[in-house]
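Take one record.
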Amino acid sequence: MITEFEQMLEQTNIQHAIVGEGSHGLREILAGLTKTRLSSLAKIYTIPGRSKMSQDELAKAAFERITDPGLLESLLPILDPEEWAVFKAAYAEPFIQDNHMPFGYYHSLLERGLIFTYFHQGKLYLIMPDEVKAAFAAMNTEAFREARRKHALVLKYLLALTNLYGVYTPDKLLDIFNGQNAAEPLSKTELEAYIGQFLQREQKFVLEEESGYLVDSGLAHYGKEGELEALLQQIQGKPHYVPDKDELLKYADDGYFEFTPQLAALKNYVLEHLCDDVNLVDGLVDDIQLGCSMGAPLEELLDEFEKREILIEAAQAKQVIGLLFDVSNHTRIWANCGHTPAELGSEKTMDPQTGGNNPVRVKKVGRNEPCPCGSGLKYKKCCGK
């Protein structure tokens, strides 16, 4: 039986697909696109004079850019893991048939003309044009594969430190990377080049030129006035929490967090005394952890119960609030450079109205909210994976 999520995924995919039987020839595909779709390709590839081009001229210019080995070589190393997996699968097979693939996994490839999607006889097909396959085959050398591996590793460190610290310097990244990868260290110049390449497309992080810090993009773009400056003040003089390599790289997953004994205690109490719906309680615990990591006040944490219609009786309130304090004091936060308040001896009792001191309130997609990519999945099941 098709779930509601699968129906939403399918509808999103159909909206972006060409209706009809698929084609493997890039020239034929481009010739059949609307001028609007061709103009979008031209814009992605910054083709000069595109606004004055005819439909045929746009198709020809797009063909030249899509099959340019140099452009392909610059793009492929900075694909994220899901995009890279789709690219490799589409390269290896005549087509991928999957009505329910999250749109976020392939939309970057689609908008660049590296794959095209077709909806035919109730099925969605992802097809990589033969010319793209030929261009990739010519560049898929051992040197390229090694470069792609190194790019992927550096990106994982960038994402991990962004999620764990919120703000950090390239020098801190360099210290941590080289300390954990002594056999293949990076120079400062190499790291700057990697960061420049990654920032050619939207990322989880941005480089603030004025401060020189790498900053979570949500904080940089949506934080309230003065929040970044306040966070920079809060982290001064504090040591960074640096777990071993395997643990650190788990933080590259935007939805990863340590499931602490305090979270387990909260979950067990809720299941035993307040609600026996495991899925509902899992979502509650996820969002409470996220709220604590963002410095949410107690009032907002309690709202998570209300949103799910989980009733807290007066006699249970003290116990629940105590459990929430414990979770908060053992949650890794940006203001402590990834340490928990307990680790730095700064346990706090949250004020019901204001929460902790100067909390960082970043616009962040809740793990159980719909993914902004439009896939229809929960964020933690899609782009937040």
Q: What stands out?
A: DSSP finds 18 helices and seven strands in the chain. Strands lie at 18-19, 96-97, 116-120, 123-127, 167-168, 205-207, 214-216.
